[in-house]
Amino acid sequence: MITNKMKLNEIVKAYPRAVDIFNDFHIDYCCGGNDSLEDALNQLSIDSKSFIDVLNKKLEKQTKEPVPTEVLDVDRLMKMEVPALIDYIIDTYHGKERILLSEIDALSNKVLLAHYAHHKDQLIPLHGLFSDLKKELEEHFAKEEKLVFPYMKQSYNQKSDKGYVKELEDEHDAAGNLIKDIIACTNDFTVPDGGCTSYHMLFQKLHELIKDIYNHIFTENSLLFSKYEGGH
Ligand SMILES: [Fe+2]
Ligand SMILES: [Fe+2]
User: Fold this and answer.
1) DSSP assignment, residue 191?
2) What would the pLDDT profile of 184-220 be if each residue is shown by its tens digit?
3) Do the beta carbons of residue 191 and residue 207 sit within 8 Å?
4) Are 126 and 20 part of one and the same domain?
5) Which residues partner with 174 through β-bridges?
6) Which residue among 40, 92, 117, 125 sits deepest, i.e. has the most Cβ atoms within 10 Å of its Cβ?
7) What is the CA(193)–ligand 2 centre distance, in A?
């Protein structure tokens, strides 16, 4: 049973299916995972009592249905030790997101050229925001894979410098802010009238990337880093 004082990351750990509902309402459970549900709802001017009633009813109904494969398997991830969880993150999220980043990069350029005349007010800022996000994520993944994750793997059960965690969390916040701007710029991934198949594909892949990044950041901020800081 979810209550308004619970933190967003506690809710996702206990009810991974809440992620879909949080995404629909732009409730930031990844970078803002330590906020209470009440605070997050207040910030978005959503009435907390009716939202939580609906959320609990929806989740209660869903627990009787089979779990779809795209839902975060939090129970399994929480049982993993730091090295295994790091390997899982690289295999699952870094690999998939690198492919999506390069597909979206090509599509973004194609759509900018094709629809410049009628939609440049949307496509120019979107092209810039996506380029910034791609650059930040590529550099962030490299830092994790080549520097911080190897360090975490060998130091997780010893006394170690935890400063890297704060650096990565700050970089997640920066990516989270670019993502909020992308959502606003695309009107929540709503293709304008006259948008071609590539326009649809661009928004669909951007949406897919962003949902994946949310799960990715949640897995690092709320599962990996808390395990690492707890030394297990
Ligand atoms: Fe990562
Ligand atoms: Fe990260």
Assistant:
1) P
2) 999 999 999 988 999 999 999 999 999 999 999 999 9
3) no
4) no
5) none
6) 40
7) 36
For ligand 2, the distance from its centroid to the CA atom of residue 194, given in whole angstroms, is: 37
What is the domain extent for residue 182? 74-230
Residue 37 shares a structural domain with residue 85: no
Indicate whether 107 and 47 sit together in one domain: no
Q: pLDDT of 35-72, one tens digit each?
A: 999 999 999 999 999 999 999 998 888 777 777 767 78
Q: How many angstroms does the Cα of residue 141 sit away from the middle of ligand 1?
A: 6
Q: How far is the CA of 78 from the centre of ligand 1 (A)?
A: 17
Contacts of 16 (CB under 8 A, 6+ apart): 71, 72, 73, 74
Helices then strands, each counted (H, E), the chain: 12, 0
Of 19, 41, 62, the residue that ends a domain is 62
- The CA 139 to ligand 1 mean position distance, Å, reads 11
Q: Which of 15-24, 60-69, 120-129 has the highest average model confidence (pLDDT)?
A: 120-129
Please give the distance, rounded to the nearest whole angstrom, from the Cα atom of residue 5 to the centre of ligand 2: 27
Give the model's confidence band at 158: pLDDT under 50 very low, under 70 low, under 90 confident, else very high.
confident
Q: Quick one: which ligand is closest to 90's CA?
A: 1
17, 37, 62 — which closes off a domain? 62
Structure tokens at 201: 């594909």
CA of 145 to the centre of ligand 2 (A): 10
